[in-house]
Design a protein that fits this description.
By secondary structure, the protein is mostly helical. The protein has 17 helices and no strands.
Length: 437
C-alpha cells in the first residue's frame, strides 16, 4: 500500500528541481540539479506518461514469471524512489557547503604545451586501434560467442577510452591549449570519433553522460544564470539524440518513421523505464533472492578479474542469478531499476537510507575537493563526475557501470595522479584563474 499519492510525490520532485535551481544560482553547483532533473524524468514523469495513456509498462511476457506491472505497483516503487532521492540530495547538501568559483579560461602555457601533444597523439592513435578492436568483437559475436559471457569485457569496453580523451581535449581547448588550426582540426576529428562511437542504442546513456561533461567544461567560465541556459539547451539536445538512438533499436522503414518513433519514445519516457525496473526488483527481493547486503558493491572489485582466470566467478545482476537469459543463454536481460533500486536490492529501506547517505557524502567530498586544486583539475574532475552521474543514476548492474567509468576515464585518472603534486602546489598560483564568486 503506497504511503503517498502521485500528486504529492510529483510536487515534491518539482520542488526539489526548483530548489536545485536556487542552489546553482547561489553556489554555482550543478550536481543537485542534474540528480533531481534526471530522477524526476525517470520516475514521476514516467509514471504520469504511462498512466495517462502515452506509454505502456514494460512486460517480459512469460520469461521469469514476473507479474504484469500495475499502476499501484508502480506507485509503491515511486514512493521508494522519491524517498531515496530525498535522502541522497539532503546528505549531499548537508556535507557540501562550498561555493564553486567561476573560472577564467587562461592558458597555463608550460603545462598545456606538455599535455596537448600527448592528448592529440593518443587520440589519433586510438581511432584506428578502436576500429580494429570493434572489428574483433564483431567477428567473435558473429562466430557465435556470447557478448555477455565469452567476449572479453576489456576488449568490448576499450573503445570507451575515447570519452576520456575527448574530455581532456575539451579541457585543453577551453584553457587555450590549441593555438594552431592543424591541432584544432585534429582535436575536432577525435571529438567526432567519440560522438560516432557512443551514438548507438547500447551506448546512449554514455553519450548523454559525456555531453553533460562537455557542458560542464564549456560553461565553466560563465555565470550561473548563463550556465543554466546552457544546461537546458544541452538537456533538450541530449534527450533528442538519446531517443533517436533508442528508436534505432527497432527496424524503422524511413527517416520520417524514425523521427516519429523518437518523438513517441521521448514523450512516453520509454527509454527511462526505471520505475518499471524498480517494480521488478521488488518482485525479486526478498521473495526470490535474499537482499545482497553490500555484495553488489563488493562485486565492483571482483568484476575486473577475467572469467578466463576464474571460471566460477559469480555472475552479476539478478536476472543472471535467476538464470534468466536470452538467445539460449548467450545474452543478458534486465530493466534498470535506477540507483535507488540498486540500493533497495542491497537491503530494502535500510539499504536505501545507508547507501544514499554514503553516496551523498562521497559526492559532496569530491565536489569540495575540486575547490582545493588547480582549476584545470577542478573542471576535469567535475566533468568526469557529471558524465558518470547519468549511467550511475540509471542503476542496474553497478559493477558493469563502474567498469565503464574505469575504461572510459583512465587517461584522466592517470593525468590527475601523475600531476597530483602540480595541481595541489599550483592551487594558490591558480587563484588568478578564478573570478570572484
Amino acid at each position: 500500500m503506497p504511503l503517498f499519492e502521485f500528486s504529492y510525490l510529483a510536487y515534491t520532485q518539482i520542488g526539489l528541481i526548483i530548489f536545485s535551481g536556487i542552489w546553482i544560482l547561489r553556489r554555482n553547483d550543478e550536481i543537485p540539479l542534474f540528480i533531481n532533473s534526471f530522477l524526476f524524468y525517470i520516475s514521476s514523469y514516467r509514471y504520469w506518461a504511462v498512466t495517462s495513456g502515452f506509454g505502456e509498462w514494460v512486460t517480459l511476457g512469460e520469461l521469469g514469471g514476473f507479474r504484469p506491472i500495475t499502476a499501484q505497483d508502480a506507485l509503491v516503487a515511486l514512493n521508494y524512489m522519491v524517498f531515496g532521492q530525498i535522502c541522497l540530495v539532503a546528505t549531499y547538501i548537508l556535507f557540501q557547503k562550498e561555493s564553486l568559483p567561476i573560472i577564467k579560461p587562461i592558458a597555463d602555457r608550460q603545462f598545456l604545451a606538455w599535455l596537448h601533444p600527448i592528448v592529440i597523439r593518443f587520440g589519433l592513435l586510438g581511432l584506428p586501434i578502436i576500429l580494429y578492436v570493434r572489428y574483433r568483437v564483431a567477428a567473435q559475436v558473429a562466430s557465435g560467442k556470447s557478448l555477455a559471457f565469452e567476449v572479453s569485457g576489456y576488449l568490448y569496453l576499450f573503445p570507451m577510452v575515447l570519452i576520456g580523451i575527448a574530455t581532456l581535449i575539451l579541457c585543453v581547448w577551453k584553457f587555450g591549449g590549441f593555438k594552431f588550426l592543424s591541432t584544432k582540426i585534429m582535436a575536432f576529428a577525435i571529438l567526432s570519433g567519440v560522438s560516432y562511437y557512443t551514438f548507438s542504442p547500447t551506448g546512449r546513456f554514455q553519450f548523454l553522460g559525456w555531453m553533460l561533461a562537455s557542458a560542464i567544461i564549456l560553461s565553466s567560465s560563465y555565470r550561473p544564470k548563463t550556465r543554466m541556459i546552457i544546461f537546458m539547451i544541452i538537456a533538450v539536445l541530449g534527450i533528442t539524440v538519446f531517443t533517436v538512438a533508442g528508436a534505432m533499436r527497432s527496424t524503422v522503414a524511413s527517416e520520417d518513421a524514425l523521427k516519429q518513433s523518437a518523438w513517441e519514445r521521448a514523450f512516453s519516457a520509454e527509454d527511462a523505464n526505471m520505475v518499471d525496473g524498480f517494480v521488478m526488483i521488488q518482485q525479486v527481493y526478498p521473495q526470490r533472492l535474499p537482499f545482497s547486503l553490500g555484495m553488489e558493491h563488493l562485486e565492483i572489485l571482483l568484476r575486473p578479474i577475467p572469467r578466463a582466470w576464474w571460471s566460477e566467478k559469480p555472475v552479476g545482476g539478478y536476472m543472471n542469478k535467476l538464470n534468466l537469459t536470452t538467445d539460449k543463454g548467450k545474452g543478458t536481460l534486465g530493466i534498470s531499476p535506477s540507483l535507488i533500486g540498486s540500493f533497495y536490492a542491497e537491503g530494502g529501506i535500510a539499504g536505501i537510507v545507508i547507501c544514499s547517505f554514503i553516496y551523498g557524502k562521497i559526492l559532496a567530498s569530491i565536489v569540495r575537493y575540486t575547490t582545493k586544486v588547480h582549476p584545470f583539475a577542478s573542471i576535469l574532475i567535475r566533468a568526469i563526475l557529471c558524465a558518470c552521474l547519468i549511467p550511475l543514476l540509471r542503476g542496474g548492474d553497478l559493477p558493469g557501470i563502474y567498469a565503464w567509468f574505469g575504461m572510459a576515464f583512465w587517461p584522466c585518472f592517470l593525468l590527475l595522479w601523475i600531476k597530483r603534486s602540480y595541481f595541489k602546489r599550483n592551487y594558490l598560483i591558480g587563484k588568478p584563474f578564478y573570478f570572484q564568486t
